[in-house]
Amino acid sequence: MNPIYVRRRRTDIVIRGLCFGAAAFGVTWLALILVTLLYNGLTGLNLQIFTENTPPPGSTEGGLLNAIVGSLIMTVLGVGIGAPLGLFAGTYLAEYGRNDKLTSVIRFINDILLSAPSIIIGLFIYGAVVVPMRGFSAIAGALALAVIVIPVVLRTTEDMLLLVPNALREAASALGLPRSLVIKRIAYRAARSGLITGVLLATARVAGETAPLLFTALSNQFFSLSLNKTMANLPVTINNFVQSPYAYWKQLAWSGALLITITVLALNIGARILGAERTAK
Amino acid sequence: MAVESNVVDAAGPYDRAKALSAFKLGDLTFYWITRLSAISVLLILGGIIISLIVGAFPAMKEYGLSFLWTQRWAPSADPPVLGALGPMYGTLVTSFIAMLIAIPVGLGIAIFLTELCPQWLRRPIGMAVELLAGIPSIIYGMWGFFVLGPFLANTFQPFMIRIFDGVPVLGAIFAGPPSYLSLFNAALILAIMVLPFITSISVDVFKTVPPVLKEAAYGVGCTTWEVVRSVVIPYTRVGIIGGVMLALGRALGETMAVTFIIGNSFRISSSIFAPGTTISAAIASEFAESDGLHQSGLILLGLLLFVLTFFVLAAARLMLLRLEKKAGK
Questions:
Q1: For burial by CB atoms within 10 Å, which of A53, A249, A274, B322 has the most?
Q2: Where in the cell is it found (chain A) (predicted)?
Q3: Residue A141 predicted with pLDDT over 70
Q4: What is the ipTM of this complex?
Q5: In this complex, do A97 and B48 lie within 8 Å of one another by their Cβ atoms?
Q6: By three-state DSSP, how is residue A252 classified?
Q7: Does some domain include residue A158?
C-alpha cells in the first residue's frame, strides 16, 4: 500500500485511541467520585440524620436536621426572591426589548454574572446586607442565593420565550388582547415547561452552593427558624465537618454530601425530562 | 328580551371604556415590572463593584500598588502586612495546570462523543457529562480531601520525585516532601471539575458544523482525524476558545473544590507539590474571622479576582457570540 495512506491511517488510529482514552479517563474519574460518595454516604445514612440536630464536638449522637431545614428555608427563599425577578427580566428581554440596545447590554452582563465566582457574590452580600444589619443572618444567605438564581432563570426564560412562535402572539393581538395578557396568557403558557425547567435548574444550582453562604448565613449548631440570626445549612456544615478531627463529624459530612448530590441530580434530571417533553411536542 | 338588550346597550360603552383603561393600566404596570427587573441585573453588577471597592478602600489606601507584589501575608502583625502575590500566583498556577489537563481531555471526549461514539452510547455519556457539570463543587473538594489527596501523597508524588530526581527544572518542580495539601492536588481537582464544562460546550459547538462540510471531507477520502483537524476545529475555533475561557473563568474563581486541599499557605514555593493558596481559598478560609485592615485586604483580593474573571468571561462571551452569529442564529 502507498506509504502515505499507511501513515494517515496510523495517525488516525492513534488519535482515535487517544480520544477513546480521554473518554475512558474522564468517565472513570467521575464514576470514582460518585462511587466513593455513595459508599461513604450510605454507610452513615439512617433515620437519625433526619430527626436530630448536629452534634456538639466529640459526640457520636446526632444528625443533620437543623442543617437540612435551614438549607430548605434558604433555598426556597432564595429561589422565591430570585426566580420572579429573573422571570420578569427575561420576559422584558424576549418580549419588549428584542431589538433594544439595553437588551444586548443586559444579556451580556447577565452572561457574565452567570459564571461569576460565587464567593464574590458572598462578599457583595456581606458588604451590602451583613454589615448594615450588623450580623450574619439567614436572610443575607437567602439574598446571596437569590443573586445567583436571577441570571440562571433570566437566561432560560429568555431562550424559552424566544422559542414561542410569533404567529401565536400575532393571533392573540389580532383578537384584541392587550400586550401584557398576550405574554401572560399565551407566551407563558406556550413556554411553561421551559420556564419551570429554568427554575428547577436554578434551584439545583443553589442547593449546593457553599461559598456565598460562608460569611452571609454562617452556620449554627442549633435548630433555628429565625431569619435574622445565623442559620445552619448543609453546605457550610459539610465544610466545617470535613475539616474537623472527629470521625463522626466526617461521617455526617459524607451523608450530607450524598443528600445534596441526590437532590441536585434529581432536580437536574427533572429539568431535563421537562425540557425533553417540550422539544418532543 | 328587549329590556335586556337595552341594558346591554346602556352598560356596554361604559364597561368597554373601563375595561380598556384597566387593560392599559395593566399593560403599563407589567411593562415597568419587567423593565425594572431587567435593569436590576445592571444594578446587581453595579452593587458588586461598588461594595467591593468600598470594602477594599482602606487596604488600597494603606498598601497602594505594592499590594500586588508583596509576598508576605501577616494579618496579625502590628501594623498588618498584606500582599497579594502568593494567592495570585496560586490562582494562576492551579488554573494553568488544570487547563493544561482539562483542555486536551475535554476536547478528546467531545470528539469521541460527536465523531466516534456509537449512537446508542452517545446519549448516556452526553447526559452523564451534563449531570456531572451540575454537581456542587464542595463534593469535588471533599473527594479531593479524603480520596485524591492521600493517594497522591502516598503513591503518585514519591513516584514522580523518584523519576525526576536530579533533572534540572523538573526536579525542582516535583521536589519536596509529599503532602495531602498542595497546589498540584488542587489543580487536579479543578481539572476534573472543569472537564464536564469544556466537554459539554465543545459538543454544542461541534454540532454547529454543517454536516455537508464534514460529508464533503469524508467524501474526498479524509480520515476521521483529518476531518476533525481540518474541518471541525477550524470551523469552530472561536467557539472552542470561548468555551475554554469560560471554563478558565470557572477555574479562576472556584472556591470550595480548592479550599480543602490547597493548604492555605501564602509562601510561594518552586515545587508544585508544596502547599499554596488561591484568592478564593484565602477569602473562604479567613474572611469570617477577619476584621479591620485584614478584612479589607481580603475584599481587595476579591476585587482583583472579580476584575480578572470579568475580563476572561467577557472575552469568552464575545467569542461565543461571534460563533453564534456565524451559525446564523
A1: A249
A2: Cell inner membrane; Cell membrane
A3: yes
A4: 0.90
A5: no
A6: helix
A7: yes
